[in-house]
Amino acid sequence: MADTTPNDLAERLDRMESVDAIRQLASKYALAVDMRDTDAIVNLYVEDTKVSREQYGRSALKASFGRVLRGFRASVHHIGGHVIEFDDSENAHGIVYCRCEHEIDDKWVPVYLYYLDTYRRDGGRWYFKRRNPSELYGADVLERPRAGIVQWPGVGERRGSWHGHFPSWETFWNTTPNAETPLVAAEPPPEGFIDAMRRGNRRVLPMDFSFSG
């Protein structure tokens, strides 16, 4: 993993401004989704964003959000931790923690997830290139949530992919502690924390959107 940390003052200032702009993307997305402004949502994405194997662009993305966002009525997206790392001055990736709550008929369903994001700067402005939600749980507020399971009213249970992107989860639970002093892996470069945790694999597990009809 190459170290893409900026060196001179101009590069450092640009990096600081870029980090703030990317964090604003996540907050703007949450507001636009909760207010059902599909134009505002899709204008946060690059113009050539990939929607499916055959579909690209903001118009196709707007149609997709129009279907998904009718799977629940009111919603709130509360942004948590946001880790951002840069591949170069024009491309970045990150992880955003988020607690989402949804009104579905007579139920209120909190879901905890993170977004696996990629970002690209076009014309001096940062955009989402891709957002992929990975859920830990989902359940009506009157039910006890179970880690790894999303209980969506009218659809039934499905598995979330919260742990699926990080090999350390299974490794930790499949390893028996011993009395010897454990070895510690080499420290990754400053812009390589996520890649190190994911063991260099940026593959994305797709979310199941069957609840959207």
What does this protein look like?
With about 210 residues, the protein is α+β, with helices and mostly antiparallel strands. The longest helix is centred in the N-terminal third of the chain and has 26 residues, at about 10-35. The protein has helices at about 10-35, 40, 60-70, 170-175, 195; strands at about 75-90, 90-105, 105-120, 125-140, 150, 155-160. The protein is globular and about 50 Å long. The chain has one domain: Nuclear Transport Factor 2, Chain: A, CATH 3.10.450. The mean pLDDT is about 95. β3 (about 105-120) and β4 form a beta hairpin. The strands form 2 sheets. The chain has a 4-stranded antiparallel beta sheet, with helices on one face. The protein has 5 helices and 6 strands.
Q: Evaluate the radius of gyration.
A: 19 Å
Helix content: 10-25%
Supply the CATH architecture: Roll
Number of strands: 6
Overall residue-averaged pLDDT value: 93
Strand order of the largest sheet: 1-2-3-4
Largest sheet descriptor: 4 strands, antiparallel
Structural class: alpha+beta
Which percent band covers the strand fraction?
25-35%
Task: Write the CATH fold name.
Answer: Nuclear Transport Factor 2, Chain: A
Termini separation comes to 41 Å
Low-confidence segments, given as residue ranges, are: none
Instruction: Report the CATH C-level class.
Output: Alpha Beta
- Write the H/E string, N to C: HHHEEEEEEHH
- Provide the domain count: 1
Rough shape?
A: globular
Determine the number of helices (DSSP H or I, runs of at least 4 residues). 5
